[in-house]
Design brief:
This protein has 226 residues and is an alpha+beta fold. Helices cover 37% and strands 30% of the residues.
């Protein structure tokens, strides 16, 4: 019982205290996603500024467009190609970064008529200012009187935060898959309707021709003399 009340007291203290200088204890993971239309015969490039010893993860999917494929490449601030894909519908790439602007491009120049709808997500890890994660300890004097150490609470909070972030990333990816599958099903639905209508028209025309030919066989046009 004493252990439980100690946990509650520490959590309340964390909520009402000024933690503006303690936020460095959490490793910030910045997530962003974007969906855009890539016209046929075009290439679109994006830039992301990164810090040294950080991590950049990019995941992309082609949601709609003939072939569901696109060319992709990722280059470093010095211009070196770090990753490349050719005519793929999706991909995931993770790189350890140096300081500078990273460039990633989606290329649809191989297609002359089909535009592509592309979704991509960026996950940036270790983008903090390099503050010592242990600095928060100097703000928590007297925590040694508690049965549960504050370090354990911080580890638990970090673990929950990381899992929630991962859950959000998975949900975003699943939404992109759902959008791509829905577009594919709608395209198949339109094709089935068009070909079904075409078959019905052809069958009606063939039926009319057959009836006409059968009637012409039994229609005696010769004149009888009396």
């Amino acid at each position: 019982m004493r252990r439980s009340w100690g946990c509650v007291a520490v959590l309340l203290w964390l909520c009402v205290s000024d933690w503006s200088s303690v936020n460095g204890a959490f490793t910030q993971s910045l997530d962003s996603d974007f969906t855009f239309t890539l016209p046929p015969g075009h290439k679109e490039c994006f830039y992301q500024t990164m810090k040294k010893d950080a991590s950049l993860e990019i995941e992309y999917q082609v949601l709609d467009g003939a072939g569901l494929d696109v060319d992709f490449y990722l280059s470093s601030p010095t211009g070196h190609i770090l990753a490349s894909d050719f005519r793929k519908s999706d991909g995931v790439h993770t790189v350890e970064t140096e300081e500078g602007d990273y460039k990633f491009c989606f290329d649809n120049t191989f297609s002359a008529v089909s535009e592509k709808i592309i979704f991509f997500e960026l996950i940036l890890d270790n983008m903090d200012d390099g503050e010592d994660p242990e600095n928060w300890k100097e703000y928590v004097q007297g925590a040694d009187l508690l049965d549960m150490k504050l370090e354990d609470i911080m580890d638990t909070i970090n673990s929950v935060k990381a899992r929630l972030g991962k859950s959000l990333q998975i949900q975003t990816v699943l939404k992109a898959f759902e959008a791509r599958d829905r577009n594919l099903q709608e395209s198949n639905y339109e094709r089935v309707n068009v070909w079904s209508f075409t078959n019905v028209v052809v069958m009606m025309v063939v039926s009319c021709v057959q009836v006409y030919l059968l009637r012409s066989l039994f229609n005696d046009k010769r004149q009888t003399r009396t």
